[in-house]
Each structure stands twice: as C-alpha cells, then as structure tokens.
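Entry for the shared binder. Reason: the reviewer on the internal report wants the predicted structure included alongside the sequence.
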Amino acid sequence: MQIYTLDRDDRMRLMKFVCAFAWADLDIADQERSFVHRMSRLLDLDADDRARVADWLELPPSVEELDPAEVPPAHRRLFLELARGLIHADGEVSEVERENFVLLERLFGRA
C-alpha cells in the first residue's frame, strides 16, 4: 500500500476526505471513529495533526476544503480504497455514502 509514501499534506488531505465520508450520513458510528483513529496511527500523525482529525470527527470539514483535484493522481486509488473502507466500517453503507463514493470516483476520473 502506498500509504507510507504520502507527505504530511497528503496524509492530512486523506484524513480530511475520510472524515468527510464518516459524516456523509450525518452519524459517525463507533466503528467509523475506530477506523479513523487506526488510520491516524497508521499514518503516524503527530499530536497536532491527530487533534485536527479529532476536530473533523466533531465538526466535518467544509466542502471548500475538499477539492478532489488537489489529490495527486498517484494517490487517488489509495484515497478511494480508504474511503471505501470507512463507509464499510460499520457494516452498513447508506445511500448517501454510496452516492458520495461514486461521485468521488467520477471526480477523480475527471480531475
């Protein structure tokens, strides 16, 4: 997995997208929170970055902060894999989660 090749900005961008997916159905399940915390550890985020991610679990990132065109093409598959992992974390994929995922796939194809 190319997760270890991400620089700090891309790791935080990834976590921002993952947290946005956690908010898609307006309810963050415990399993989704656990997924986000595991990702924070796996990405070896420092304390300040972990605090920022925790903030995104309390209040979602704004739409303006989520620009798929900013995701480097080399990392788009990884972003999609982790977004898919998040939306499946609680064992239920809502219609809005599914729609958001399909939209992100399409935007990555065009970006």
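Summary line for the report: The longest helix spans residues 95-110.
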